[in-house]
């Protein structure tokens, strides 16, 4: 009987493509794979009793899972080469982590491995440098459309001002109050918590609007906006309308699919800059146009080390100059190519000979084969545990262990109510279109690389 690997997903838009690419290689090695939401992990483990579980981080106490299953961590957060972010997310600085039950932690690059080793929370044999499947599209052959078909690209990074949670659904006053009391990791730091990020995003929104007006309203250039995965698209209809349709919003499964049409990319504090430079698209940082006080309020963890390797801009007229140079093929992809190559190799294990998804799948397969003789016990229902003994909770757990997909639907519907946990960002089994697009993109890439 084929061994089962459960792949848990946190942010569906960000992780689904890489998860399906990993699914492809695991399946080709004779393993059975199941994708699930990180939130419903307990129910899926109870229902399927997997041989291995792949987690998006080590923030989940997987001690009980490790009794019957090998636990792997395929981190969804790269930290963009920032040691502080690595420590906050995977090193226990901002939140407790549970490293002991983990068999392997698949590092994005050598830089991440070195930082985690220094914490002494991880053993050397746990940390394997593979790169991440979500970046395997970087291995695709280069392909650019004709100059006359190209567009100007703009990628955004709005989170607080994402428009994703309407005010009537989320109590923003309570949210800001909680942020002021406890802070939220590296996003908000004392003594200026919520206003730091909101101030920055307001300044970025002003700059973005100015760039779009300068390029597409005054100079009639075609432009495409690729919003942050958590953003709502409807807000950008405003720019589509004022530009007579020359500005459009684009959503693609992975960045390479979009960048084929882009001649130059304008952005700031977005990992899309890395995707673009890797694919040979010149990138212009918007940092020079953002209010200096807004930049001062940003935490140090958001001073990405690659930003000064990109082209810089001081005024909107300069944007036109960059567009013309890119159109003529006279603008290199970045202004310090040697440093960029060294950075990518150290932090993202790129370039690499084999896809990260294949390396991760091979490590999982070898680990399971090595422990094939280990005795496994059936899972038990813990519905009678202390503090959770109500009849409603017992029914919830027992039904969840039998039909985890049904419980996922209940949690999703509950999250639509005011002041409830919104789980729409994570993997949902009934989103067939989203799953089909990610699966097809993963298969197409696996055939090429």
In total, the number of domains comes to 2
Query: Which residues sit in consecutive blocks of at least 5 with pLDDT less than 50?
Result: 165-169, 379-389
Distance N to C terminus: 30 Å
Sheet having the most strands: 6 strands, parallel
The tally of strands reads 12
Looking at the structure, what is the overall shape?
Answer: globular
What's the Cα radius of gyration? 23 Å
Please explain how this structure is put together.
- By secondary structure, this protein is an alpha/beta fold.
- The protein folds into 2 domains: 4-131 and 352-448, Rossmann fold (3-Layer(aba) Sandwich), CATH 3.40.50; 142-348, Rossmann fold.
- The protein contains 16 helices and 12 strands.
- It has a 6-stranded parallel beta sheet with strand order 2-1-3-4-5-6, with helices on both faces. It has a 6-stranded parallel beta sheet with strand order 9-8-7-10-11-12, with helices on both faces.
- Helix 1 (12-28) links the parallel strand 1 (4-9) and strand 2 (32-37).
- Helix 1 packs across helix 13 (356-370), helix 2 packs across helix 14 (391-402) and helix 14 crosses helix 15.
- The longest helix has 25 residues, at 194-218.
- The radius of gyration is 23 Å and the shape is globular.
- It starts with a strand and ends with a helix.
